[in-house]
Amino acid sequence: MNGTWLTLFAVGAATFAYRLSCIEFGSNLEAGVLGNPRARRLLRFVPPAAFAALVAPAIVVRDGTMLTNPLDPRLLAALVALVCALLTRSVLFTLASGMLALHAVRFLLGG
Question: Where are the transmembrane segments (predicted)?
Answer without folding.
Answer: 43-63, 75-102
